[in-house]
UniProtKB/TrEMBL annotation:
<dbReference type="GO" id="GO:0030170">
    <property type="term" value="F:pyridoxal phosphate binding"/>
</dbReference>
<dbReference type="InterPro" id="IPR001926">
    <property type="entry name" value="TrpB-like_PALP"/>
</dbReference>
<dbReference type="GO" id="GO:0003941">
    <property type="term" value="F:L-serine ammonia-lyase activity"/>
</dbReference>
<dbReference type="InterPro" id="IPR036052">
    <property type="entry name" value="TrpB-like_PALP_sf"/>
</dbReference>
<comment type="similarity">
    <text>Belongs to the serine/threonine dehydratase family.</text>
</comment>
<feature type="domain" description="Tryptophan synthase beta chain-like PALP">
    <location>
        <begin position="18"/>
        <end position="94"/>
    </location>
</feature>
<dbReference type="GO" id="GO:0006565">
    <property type="term" value="P:L-serine catabolic process"/>
</dbReference>
<protein>
    <submittedName>
        <fullName>Pyridoxal-phosphate dependent enzyme</fullName>
    </submittedName>
</protein>
<dbReference type="InterPro" id="IPR050147">
    <property type="entry name" value="Ser/Thr_Dehydratase"/>
</dbReference>
<dbReference type="Pfam" id="PF00291">
    <property type="entry name" value="PALP"/>
</dbReference>
<keyword id="KW-0663">Pyridoxal phosphate</keyword>
<dbReference type="InterPro" id="IPR000634">
    <property type="entry name" value="Ser/Thr_deHydtase_PyrdxlP-BS"/>
</dbReference>
<dbReference type="GO" id="GO:0009097">
    <property type="term" value="P:isoleucine biosynthetic process"/>
</dbReference>
<dbReference type="GO" id="GO:0004794">
    <property type="term" value="F:threonine deaminase activity"/>
</dbReference>
<keyword id="KW-0456">Lyase</keyword>
<dbReference type="GO" id="GO:0006567">
    <property type="term" value="P:L-threonine catabolic process"/>
</dbReference>
Amino acid sequence: MPEATVKKILQARVYEAAIETPISPAPFLSRRFNNQILIKREDLQPVYSFKIRGAYNKMAQLSEEQKARGVIAASAGNHAQGLAMAAKQLGVKAV
């Protein structure tokens, strides 16, 4: 992985909103595919999805002027839930 990519990952402000989730074995799938299958449990996030990571990280990088204008999510699913939670934590108006 390029060093610049690793740096961006390490600087992402995702753990201010997201929790570290476990990697769990998936015995049924492992047997079915004759391989070791592990599942990253992002369903344990506060909004039951990994989408909080991207939404929070992007909103945390907005300027104060941009935050004052608010944000809009064109979603009724996991992304909207992540955006709503991030907006609440950052004090940003969201639709």
